[in-house]
Amino acid sequence: MRLRAYAALSVAHLVFILLGWGLARDISKPLLMLILAATVAAAAPRLLFCALIASCAGDTFLIFGGTWFLLGMGGFAVAHACYVTCFVRGGALRDRRRVLRTAAPYAVVWAVLITLLWPDLDAGLRVPLACYSLLLTGTAVSSACAGLRTGLGGGLFLLSDSLIASGLAHWPQLPVADFWVMTSYLAGQYLLATGIADRYSARSTTTGAWSDVPLPLRASRST
């Protein structure tokens, strides 16, 4: 039922963007991650809940723009740190070969994007954006190593923020750019959250609270 609420509000938010209803768009935006957090709260590790609440804070700060933008970026940086920690604790990086195969193309994408964006970004945004994008790439890599659904979610999150970065660099934008930014963002967050929640729920039924148990102990309990 709550997933329907998230889907309904997501569609409404996208419609508000298309119609140019700025106030309705701004009011609905912070509610999206709150509803998603409430949806998965009963069957999710604490780190996922923290990631979604931090994302809600980031969404809220970004509404105001200007000097609030860096605070919004900070909120999302916390969210990505939570996501990466959650995936690492879940064992996503145990297979080193898979990690290398996954990380290599993402590293190339990160390096190319930063190189191209750098000269067109405001000086005050260059270092913060480069650091933030490393965390974002970390989420993309670790989520891909964890599974197909979460990997797609991490990739969509990366796409969404890449579209935002292109706007910061004053590159030509797609028509109704905010629509594409939010579509990829909302889908990415949904896939990340539900993917983690499902994995957590499945493992906790046999091994206890999966993501809150240290890796060596989890390994011994699962054998």
Name the shape in a single word: globular
Q: Helical stretch count?
A: 9
Low-pLDDT residue intervals, each spanning 5 or more residues: 208-223
Briefly note the structural class of the backbone: mainly alpha
What is Rg? Answer: 18 Å
Q: Note the main sheet.
A: none
Q: Could you walk me through the main structural features you see in this protein, from its secondary elements to its overall organization?
A:
This protein has 223 residues and is mostly helical. Helices cover 82% and strands 0% of the residues. The chain contains nine helices and no strands. Helix 1 (2-19) packs antiparallel against helix 8 and helix 4 packs parallel to helix 6. The longest helix has 31 residues, at 177-207. The protein is globular and about 45 Å long. 36% of the residues are buried. Mean pLDDT is 90; it is low at 208-223.
Give a quick precis of the structure:
By secondary structure, the chain is mostly helical. The chain has helices at residues 2-19, 22-40, 46-64, 68-89, 96-117, 123-146, 148-168, 177-207, 215-221. It has one domain (2-221).
Strand and helix map with partners:
Blueprint: H1 2-19, H2 22-40, H3 46-64, H4 68-89, H5 96-117, H6 123-146, H7 148-168, H8 177-207, H9 215-221
Keywords:
223 residues, mainly alpha, 9 helices, globular, disordered C terminus
